[in-house]
Every structure is written in structure tokens, then in C-alpha cells.
Amino acid sequence: MTKRVLDKANQLGKPQHPTVRGHFDGEVTWPVFRPGTTYHAAFPERSPKPVTSDLMSLESYGFPSDLLHAWAGSIPALNQLQIDAINDFGLLRGDHLVVSAPTSSGKTMVGELAALRGALERKRAFFLLPLKALVNDKHRHFTKTYQAFGLRVIRATSEVADDIPALMRGQYDLCLMTYEKFASLVIGCPHILEQVGTVVVDEVQMIADESRGANLEFVLTLLRMRRRMGIEPQLIALSAVIGDTNGLERWLGARLLRRTERPVPLDEGILLADGRFRFLDSSGVEQVTGPVITREYRKDSSQDWIVPLVRKLVAEGKQVIVFRETKGEARGCALYLAEAIRLPAAQPALDALPAADPSLASTALRDALMHGVAFHNSDLDREERLVIEEQFRTPATALRVITATTTLAMGVNTPAEAVVIAGLEHPGNQPYSVAEYKNIVGRAGRLGFTAHGTSYLLALDYHQENYAWNRYVTGVPEDLHSRFVAEGTDPRTLILRVLAAGRKAKVKGVPSEDIIDFLEGSFGAFQKKQNASNWIWDRPRLAGALANLAAHKLVEAANDSRYHLTALGRFAGEGGVEVESIIRLVDALSPLPTAAINDPTLIAATQLTVELDQVYFPLNKKSTQKEPQMWFAELRRQAIPSPVLTSLTRFVEDQHMGTSRAKKAAACLLWISGRPISEIEKVMTQFGGAFDGAAGPIRSVSARTCDLLPSVARVASILHTGIDLGSRVTRLLTRLEVGVPAAAVEIAQFAGSRLSRGDYQQLIKANLNTAAAVEAASDDQLIACLGGNSERAEAVRDAARMFRDQEISPITPILPDYES
């Protein structure tokens, strides 16, 4: 109780220091108060009838029966986690809550319940997710489920399809966003936080992630600090199973609802070289059975065990997901399983796949699907992955096996009865965390789809057996640790974000003590203080970071020790761009004449950023002459100025980074050239480095360039006053997002990802790529051009109408000429 009071006082910025004078005889106990008859009589509005497993019991909280009947199609009943959240943890009373539970436990529904309860009371809700793919997946689900009940569902992920105008005007009920987009919006437009009653943060265990944890923690810290201004939406934080929360719930002023039991029983274990299966059954008892399979001598590799195991599981009528370490292994595994097991063709999946602009992976996917197997990795485009996901969860589907990398385990709904894991390392020899492993095995057995799950981790020698069993099968997920105060986190970036967040309220500047106050309100500082109550933020380190920011003209210090953001600093703080990225961009773009800042220059400069350096791209590091010379020569042909090309070789960690940056820029330029993706793959891999295609890296670097390019353009505009990049950047972003040449922009800027890259290629080929051509075409022409898809033909019609609507007519002067 005392800790909760202390935590709440600290959240309000009014630290308390309670002490006890005197002494106690014996052990101190405090009764646990629960609402009783007297409480219910005094506060009837806070005492609705407790819910039961019956969905209709939610009517006492105001949920309409039509909505409950719609839920019943996919959720037969509330489970114990959801019942406890409502009855015992105040979920529908507006209480803050942290939920930690296994995959398939129904915790996402906990967030939905809170958000919908608010929406029914005309309060809006934000759903924050780590990946664009998850936002798009949830958007499809929410739109299908809730739009019929008048709920407006929108999304914001920095794509053409974003509903930013509706968000700014408050014309929505549920908005789904990535962490980064939310952070950018809530700093630049703080009023949007005043619109909402509920914020649901999914996968909150990402706060411990090396690359994105500090950003998520900043978002949560900002939400906490806004409470001091009276802005306190209900916060629901959802997490997979983790170790010790290290006080996350206390820091958030929430209660912790932790469950480790699964609603669907799971047998979790390891497959040994002799075919025996050593596992923990659903009650936690160790067992050894078998041999369940006999090794087939094929390649003297894991294939020798995977093939007979998957054959056995499929023969038992089970759907199987095989997890491999790399996308190449996932594709190869799918092909050899298809060849070895030879299941019937997954014809509905084959029929649903897009035909236009196939990648090298697309061809391999069709080969695998001819025998009831698919792979799921980044080399497939969004539409292909969606087909695989939907077909795999279709009842009685012919698609029986998926091979995948770990990204499939990140919240994408693909239930299976059995999971096979071959390999426990990410690229770069980084072992999976126990939490990642537990999330993967959680794919086996899914509530509402399967009654039981089994996971098989290959451990083919004595060392692997001991390691896999002790670290992973019987291991406990890692404790949560903040990245906010970790060694690799740049304090300069944090400071700019703090200043940007406080700019609206502190027009006279922000004193250094306020900066420290915010930073010491972080989860990282909270953890430090739990270990040492007298811990304070490193003042000399902060002073050094502020001095560095001032030296690079990102902040200015006033005489009264208040700090102001410069135009560059304000932009960096609001956009969430790393300070190091801004410094590099200033160095590269400052010497340029305004006329030299063309589209290829903006794309090349974007590759200088820290954020793009973190994007993997295949490169043959043994090619020290041909490959480096090739990409730099190609960029020179695009009229990219020498200072930018020279900058690509600066700020590097090794001799290959400059070549990698140049190659990424070339990949982006090819992506928007209109050339087929299969041709681009061949060009990008002509020197080696990726023998199974490169569609995934090409799309990834283009998408990340699309994310960062507005920041690069903004830096250029600040450095070169008078330059107008607005319309050019808008067109370029459209092209980068969907991968189209300039000829398709007229339609693409409004249709966006409703059409595929192949659809746009077909429209160009048929000369239907302008609003005028679309208006003149018949419906039959459009539908035939788009492979018989009438919905996409309508999307093209809508885009043509929107283009016409936005055409600006000459502006008639409003004011008469002034007469003196």
C-alpha cells in the first residue's frame, strides 16, 4: 500500500516520504478490502453485476446485444483471464492495467473490451502496435467486426492509406498506430491525447528491445507525465509471458494481471536424434516417448528429421508451422517438404495469389503450394503473405504446412496444432531470448481453433539437448529491463524529444531541471531507484549532451539556463529522428546548391541515416572492386552531387558500409523505375550475396527510406530556405511506398496500397494510368486489366475521382486592392 501511494505521488510530481514513528509488536498485517454490500449500496454505478463466461453478461456494462452476438461467431465465451480483468481488476471501470499472459490466452480481447467500452460512451481509443503489418492486420479485423455497428476505425502508419485528417479532426472511434507514429503525432499535435479515453499498448515487453525499447519507453513516460496536466486516459498494456516486470505496473500506476496457464493445453519439448520426444506435458510433468519418428538419411542435416516428423504430424490431420532461422532456410524447407510429402495442391491459395509482378520467391511459393506447403517470409509481398495467413486459418484448408522465420510469431494470427523449431539463433549468431522462444511455441494450440498443441525443438546431440532443455523448455522468460538508460541509447535524442514535448507548454524555453525531471520519470530511472534510492540522473553526462546539441545548432541556451529548440532541433525532436542522423544530413546537404537537390539526391542522402544503417541488405563483401564501383557509378549517372556520394563513405563502422549505402540507394531507384521485381532482384544479386533473391530487402529498404525521406527533405528545406519540396516529396513518397514510376502517381497517390505494384504495372501497360484515361474507360476494361477484380477497379475509379476533386482552380482574390 505504501509503495502504491509513493508511486502515485511521484507520477504527480509531488514525491512523498512517509515514515513511521514508534514501533510494532509482532508482524504487521493489513486487511484486503473488497467491495461488499455497504459499498454496492453506496456506489451502485460502480457495482454492475459481475460478468460470467456468458458473453451476454456484458450487457450489464452497456455492450449492445448485436455486438455480443457478432463476437460469438469467433469467441464462444469469455475466458478466465477476461473475467478476472473485468470483475477483479477494474478493466471496464477505467482502471490502468498491465496484462502478462501466454500467446492465445485472449489478452488482446482484454484491450478490445476496454477500448469498445469507451467507444460506446463516445470516448475514443488508440491501439499501439510494434509493426505496420500488425496494424494492417488489426485494421482489417476491426473494420470487419465493428464498422457495421457504426464504429469508425482508422489507422496511421506513415502510408498513403493513413487517415491523418480524420485523426486530427477526431472523426474516429478506434485508431491503430505504430509506436513511432504515435510518438511523432502526440509530440507535434499534443491535443490528440485529449481526445481519447483509452490507450492500449500491445506487445509492451518490447520496452526491453535493443532497437525500439527506448522509443516505446519515451511514449509511456510521456503518457505518465501528461497526468500532471490532468490528461489521464485509461492505459492497458498487454505483454507476452515475461519474467519479473521489475515494477512496470507500479511505474505506470497500474495493477498487474499475470497468468502463466494456457487456455489450450501444450506439450512442449525437444526431438532427440534417435527420434524420441522429451517433453513437459500440459501439467508440467516431464515425459519421454518414442521414438516417434525414424531418421531419413537425406542431406545429413536437420532435413533428415524434419521431413519424417512433418509427414507424421500431417498424417494425423494436424496443421504444422516449421520455424527456421533465416528466410532462405524457410523457403528451402518448404520446397523440400513439398517434394518429399507431396500433399494435394492448396488450390484456393494458388487461385488467390496475385499474378502480376512476381518475385523469385513468388515462383517458389507456387511450386510449394502445388503440394500443400507454403513459406512465409519477407521476400513475399504483403498480399502474398495475407493469402497464406488467411488460407492457413480457413477451416478444412488444403494448406497444411507453413515454414517461416520468427516474424510470423509476432502477433500474426496463424494457429497450428504443432510447431517445429530448427535453430535458435538470429542472423549474427544472436541466440533467441527465452521470451521469443516461448512466443514461438505459443503458436501451437490456439483458442477457438485447436484443442491441444505440441511443440518440437530439434536437439540432435547431447550438448544441444542439455542446452535446449535447460535454457528454453524449462527456462523462465527474461526480466524486463529498460533501454532508456542503457549504454547504446543516445541521450541527445532523448533530450530533443523532451524539449519538443514541452515546447507547447513552455514557450519561454525549458529549464534543464525540467529535462531531468522528465528523464527521471522514465522506467529506466524508476528501476535504478529501486536498486539505489538516492540514484539521480548523471548531470555531467546531460550537460555534455546539451553542449553537443548546442554545438550542432540543434538547441540554444538562454541566459536564464532555459533551452530552446532551433528549427532543426524542433523537427528532430518531433520526428523522432536520431541526432546522429541529423548531424550527418547537415554535413552532406549544406554544401549543395539548391538546384542539386533532386529526387535521387534525397534518396541517396536518406541512406546516410542511422535508421537506414540498421536495415539489412545483401552484399558480397568479397567483391572489393566490382560491386563498389558499380553502385557509385550508377548513382553518379543520376546526377547525385559529389558531396553526397562522398558522405556515403563517411561515418562508417567498416569498409563495406559505404558500398551498402550506395547499393540501397540504387535499389530504391530501381524499385520506383517500373521494372519487374524479378529483374531488380537479378540486378541486385549479380555479384552474389543472396542466391535466393532479394525481394524482401528491396522492399524493406524502400519502405524505411519512405519513412525517413520526409525528415531528409525537412532538413534540406531548413538548410536551403526558399526551396519548395512539398509536392515533389509527396509524389516521391507515393512512388517509394508502392514501387511505381512517375507515370502511375496520378492514381497511386490516392489508391495507395489498395492496389499492388503489379496492378499499377498493368494499368500503365493498358494506358489506364491517368484520371482522364480511367474516366474514359468502361468498367469491363478496368476489371479485365486488374485480373477480374471488381473491388480494385472501384478503387481506381475512386482514385480518379479524388484526383479531380483535389485539382485546384485559380484562386480569386478576396480582398480588394488597398487604397491609401
Written overview of the protein:
It is a single chain. The chain has 820 residues and is of the alpha/beta class. 45% of the residues lie in helices and 11% in strands. An 8-stranded mixed beta sheet has the order 10-9-8-17-14-11-13-12, with helices on both faces. A 7-stranded parallel beta sheet has the order 3-4-2-5-6-1-7. Helix 23 crosses helix 30 and helix 30 packs antiparallel against helix 31 (726-738). It is globular, with a radius of gyration of 28 Å. The mean pLDDT is 89.
Name the strands of the widest sheet in spatial order. Answer: 10-9-8-17-14-11-13-12
Rg calc: 28 Å
Shape: globular
Head-to-tail CA distance between termini: 74 Å
Overall pLDDT score: 89
Major pleated sheet: 8 strands, mixed
Number of strands: 20
Low-pLDDT sequence parts: none
Helix content range: 40-55%
Q: What is the percentage of strand-forming residues?
A: 5-15%
Structural class: alpha/beta
Enumerate how many helices there are, as a single number: 36
What attributes characterize this protein structure?
7-stranded parallel beta sheet; 820 residues; 8-stranded mixed beta sheet; 20 strands; single chain; alpha/beta
List the helices and strands and how they pair.
Blueprint: H1 2-11, H2 37-42, H3 65-72, H4 80-87, E1 97-100, H5 107-120, E2 124-129, H6 132-146, E3 153-156, H7 164-169, E4 174-178, H8 179-188, E5 196-201, H9 213-226, E6 234-239, H10 248-251, E7 255-258, E8 266-272, E9 277-280, E10 286-289, H11 303-315, E11 320-324, H12 327-341, H13 347-352, H14 360-369, E12 373-376, H15 382-392, E13 401-404, E14 418-422, E15 425-426, E16 430-431, H16 434-441, E17 453-459, H17 462-473, H18 491-502, E18 510-511, H19 512-519, H20 523-531, H21 539-551, E19 555-557, E20 562-565, H22 567-575, H23 579-589, H24 599-606, H25 610-613, H26 626-637, H27 642-647, H28 657-671, H29 677-684, H30 695-719, H31 726-738, H32 745-751, H33 757-765, H34 771-776, H35 779-785, H36 790-806
Parallel strand pairs: 1-6, 1-7, 2-4, 2-5, 3-4, 5-6, 8-17, 11-13, 11-14, 12-13, 14-17
Antiparallel strand pairs: 8-9, 9-10, 15-16, 18-20, 19-20
Helix pairs in contact: 8-9, 11-12, 12-14, 18-22, 22-30, 23-30, 24-28, 24-30, 26-28, 28-30, 30-31, 32-36
